[in-house]
Amino acid sequence: MTTLTIIKGDATSPQAKGPKVIAHVCNDVGGWGKGFVLAISRRWPEPERDFRRRHRERARNDFALGAVRLVQDTLLAAGVPTTVYDV
Questions:
Q1: Which residues on adjacent β-strands are paired with residue 81?
Q2: Would you list the DSSP string of 30-41?
Q3: N or C: at which end does the chain have fewer Cβ atoms within 10 angstroms?
């Protein structure tokens, strides 16, 4: 069994080695603009663009509570693949 290690610090600047995963919980009313998502948007603009686009087009997709969305990006400085999970 793998041990879970908790590291304190800036969640938008993960310090562990290898691929990174950042997970956060979203609402289903299309609101993006308070709390942790502001830090995500400053670092990676694509998760916000994707969230807003999915909300606008929600009649044609699975945008709802419980849906999980994966948005891949790259940490600019290190070139490390990073995935942001909107849950």
A1: 74
A2: ----STHHHHHH
A3: N
